Amino acid sequence: MIGRLFRAHGEFCASHPWEVIVALLTITACMLTVDKNNTLDASSGLGAATASAAAAGGSGASGAAIPPASVGGSATSSRHRPCHGWSQSCDGLEAEYNAADVILMTIVRCTAVLYCYYQFCSLHRLGSKYVLGIAGLFTVFSSFIFTTAIIKFLGSDISELKDALFFLLLVIDLSNSGRLAQLALSGSNQAEVTQNIARGLELLGPAISLDTIVEVLLVGVGTLSGVQRLEVLCMFAVLSVLVNYVVFMTFYPACLSLIFDLSRSGVDMSVVREKAKGSLLLKSLTEEEQKANPVLQRVKLIMTTGLMAVHIYSRVAFSGSDYDSVDKTLSPTLSLNVSNNRTESGEITDIIIKWLTMSADHIVISIVLIALVVKFICFDNRDPLPDQLRQSGPVAIAAKASQTTPIEEEQDTQKRQPEISAVPAVVRAPLFTIEEQSSANVSTQTELLPLRHRLVGPIRPPRPLQECLDILNSTEDGSGPASLSDEEIVSIIQAGGTHCPLYKIESVLDDPERGVRIRRQIISGRAKMQVGRLDGLPYEHLDYRRVLNACCENILGYVPIPVGYAGPLLLDGETFYVPMATTEGALVASTNRGCKALSVRGVRSVVEDVGMTRAPCVRFPSVARAAEAKSWIESDENYQLVKTEFDSTSRFGRLKDCHIAMDGPQLYIRFVAITGDAMGMNMVSKGAEMALRRIKRQFPDMQIISLSGNFCCDKKPAAINWIKGRGKRVVTECTISAATLRSVLKTDAKTLVECNKLKNMGGSAMAGSIGGNNAHAANMVTAVFLATGQDPAQNVTSSNCSTAMECWAENSEDLYMTCTMPSLEVGTVGGGTGLPGQSACLEMLGVRGAHATRPGDNAKKLAQIVCATVMAGELSLMAALVNSDLVKSHMRHNRSSVAVSSANNPLNVTVSSCSTIS
Ligand SMILES: CC(C)(COP(=O)([O-])OP(=O)([O-])OC[C@H]1O[C@@H](n2cnc3c(N)ncnc32)[C@H](O)[C@@H]1OP(=O)([O-])[O-])[C@@H](O)C(=O)NCCC(=O)NCCSC(=O)C[C@@](C)(O)CC(=O)[O-]
Ligand SMILES: NC(=O)C1=CN([C@@H]2O[C@H](COP(=O)(O)OP(=O)(O)OC[C@H]3O[C@@H](n4cnc5c(N)ncnc54)[C@H](OP(=O)(O)O)[C@@H]3O)[C@@H](O)[C@H]2O)C=CC1
């Protein structure tokens, strides 16, 4: 209920920022410009005191003494009406500074500075130091200005604020401003910002209100101390707390909202708001009100009650004629203090009395300081807001329920133990973002990543390096790397040598995930990365057995790429749903549309296993000797000798051909081999090496320049692959009826044929392209390659494609289309095809692993699917181009305002939106 009130209030402030800000500024301006003498004269009883205060203020500043009677009087009256203290402040403060004063104020100032430092450290831990730092500074500044205005209004001398400022710094809690700013600015549009601010106040408001009450009552105790200067300072502090509270609840959220409002570009907010309603973040924000730690809340409530009792009792006890006697009881030395402060007596007794009287001052200030310290330690230790939200969100709850086993919980608890970090970068909680919320329900580790990043291990000081090395190399039970803490392992790695090179951690530790975690920490430190830089790069839940010694070295993690599907695709009578991994919005949609058009009549294909190639470069002493070697290899009999050697290296690799090019005394021997279901580069390289040995036996003067002489030609554009082929050669064909062209692609055959001729043929010829007579074959090739674990770099040669179109049927209104791809380098065995995700995608196509009976058939089938998918993408894009739909569709699917703004703009300001374009 209370939370909802705060929420409504926050919503109001955020949605009416101008009104709130102008209202507050107007009130402040009124206070600053009001004629305080008139006002105070008119007010009850304050006039006299103010007059004296003003006078004293003036004198006080110069250090003039005030008659004891007047001071005393003031003090007395101040206890009857606390606000009186404002006008009396100068009286109190003008008292001459003695050694104790100097020490005391120094401590207060130091504490304030340290506290500020602590606050900024906390803000840094929360996330962006710039945004949050500015938020914190803004709160301090605005609170100070408002407090000044009120103090001036109450008739005090502003010159005395130098002491009060430190109290102001001590009572302001910047972390809440940081939290609210972080939450507000994580919104991607005005509606989200408003909702985030409302949600933030709903969450923070009740706790902050209670904190404020406790602080006011606690610090208010100082106003009962009987020590006049302390009373005045405490009144400043109380006022600061109250003003800071009001600023935080009104001015601050309004300003946050305004920042966003002013910096966005004219977007249609009704549309954006509609979109925002569905966002995951908002869903999590509308969940049940977050409760602060109930134990702490109860303690605070009890404290509040107790302090109220103290205040009521004290003020009743001090009222009326009783006051003087009570005052004497509580502070018997006060009058002495006042008079003694103003004597220049050097007598020991006077000094003792002065110190004794000041000790009351010290004691109460110490109580206030201790109370503040207790507040930091006990009450400010609440979970960061992002954690609270994460815990509360329905998505997170579901994710937690499904993911967190008791064992995991236990591990997490262990990992929450204080870290023993030997490296400088300690990963902190990441910025709270929509993306983080959105990803909470997928089974990646990102949600708990920051905690798991930390170095873990038994809490004990690291053992000496030699001892750690002995344990590392020991084979005894209870020894070995598992018994070393992360910090000890880091020290071994940092020491260098061969014991545990950074790139071998996984195998040395025999625990890949732990190894990767430690490497991330070390690299973060060595690369002097900002805290949390690697948080977005997952590394857990990866089957490292399938990665190590197969796919990657020096692993830091893995990059998740979205996988979509295009289909159904009717190919040679079979239906396929083709997985595509891409970050190019609109690509899958386009291919999907193409599949729809093609599948009405279905695609037919032919495939040929051209063979994988490897062409070493060898050199002979003379051209004649090179020519002799060439003819030796090309003779049938010798070719068989070489083939036997080649084939001996694999159960599936079989030498198919040998093309030799001569360039001076150099030979480029292009071995062509079928490689079963593997793409075959390793296999053919292995075979080529063995074949070269045989040739060298025959020609000992042959010099092997390089196993790869670029005549192969792998991963580089080359005409030879276009002409002779490489891997699999596939040709697909299809006819698309005029009706389908109209209904699905919104075009006709004639227009497409014309465009294909001028763009894919004419345009590519003008560009001097080889193998590029297509619109975007590389798009589909790469997306399917990534999804199915192919070598991504082989998209270069594999994307060779000629797309042809003709008008078809009697009336020439249908379309006949072919795609010819002579060099598709694909495999269903080896490389990345064995990784779990990639393997699942191959499974989806029914081509995972080796073909059970006919080795090579799975790879060929995959090549056919790739070519048919390319055809679908080609058809759809060509239709989009003739319809001038390209830019429109990409603005809709390929440019998210959230992604663009969060990448380029720390304030998440929307820099573009499809709603303005489409
Ligand atoms: C593999 C190496 C580096 C071994 O090289 P090496 O000299 O045997 O290794 P080493 O054990 O003596 O270590 C030397 C250094 O290599 C690094 N190193 C060594 N091992 C690791 C590891 N596991 N993880 C990370 N770093 C490693 C490391 O820096 C190490 O120094 P250290 O730190 O020990 O003082 C070397 O043989 C090599 O560079 N091979 C070439 C592999 C390659 O480039 N493959 C690319 C694919 S080929 C292709 O796709 C295209 C192609 C070929 O067809 C194109 C064409 O036609 O030309
Ligand atoms: N070395 C190089 O120059 C290059 C390497 N690459 C990389 O090479 C890797 C791919 O090499 P590739 O040779 O395809 O794969 P692999 O190196 O993984 O070799 C395939 C393995 O699978 C076995 N196998 C089992 N069943 C079959 C089957 N039905 N058909 C074929 N092989 C089968 C083979 O047996 P057997 O041992 O009997 O042959 C062989 O051991 C990729 O990671 C790629 O990135 C890429 C470009 C160049």
From TrEMBL:
GO terms for molecular function: hydroxymethylglutaryl-CoA reductase (NADPH) activity; NADP binding. It is a multi-pass membrane protein. GO terms for cellular component: endoplasmic reticulum membrane; peroxisomal membrane. The chain crosses the membrane at residues 12-34, 97-118, 130-152, 203-224, 236-260. GO terms for biological process: coenzyme A metabolic process; isoprenoid biosynthetic process; sterol biosynthetic process. The keyword Membrane applies. Pathway: Metabolic intermediate biosynthesis; (R)-mevalonate biosynthesis; (R)-mevalonate from acetyl-CoA: step 3/3. It catalyses: (R)-mevalonate + 2 NADP(+) + CoA = (3S)-3-hydroxy-3-methylglutaryl-CoA + 2 NADPH + 2 H(+). It is found in: Endoplasmic reticulum membrane. Pfam families: HMG-CoA_red, Sterol-sensing. Its main location: endoplasmic reticulum. Keywords: Endoplasmic reticulum, Glycoprotein, Isoprene biosynthesis, Membrane, NADP, Oxidoreductase, Transmembrane, Transmembrane helix. The keyword Signal does not apply. InterPro entries: HMG_CoA_Rdtase, HMG_CoA_Rdtase_cat_sf, HMG_CoA_Rdtase_CS, HMG_CoA_Rdtase_eu_arc, HMG_CoA_Rdtase_metazoan, HMG_CoA_Rdtase_N, HMG_CoA_Rdtase_NAD(P)-bd_sf, HMG_CoA_Rdtase_sub-bd_dom_sf. Its EC number is 1.1.1.34. Residues 101-258 form the SSD domain. PROSITE patterns: HMG_COA_REDUCTASE_1, HMG_COA_REDUCTASE_2, HMG_COA_REDUCTASE_3, HMG_COA_REDUCTASE_4, PROKAR_LIPOPROTEIN, SSD. Belongs to the HMG-CoA reductase family. NCBIfam families: 2A060605 (TIGR00920), HMG_CoA_R_NADP (TIGR00533). PANTHER family: 3-HYDROXY-3-METHYLGLUTARYL-COENZYME A REDUCTASE. This is 3-hydroxy-3-methylglutaryl coenzyme A reductase. It comes from Drosophila rhopaloa (Fruit fly).
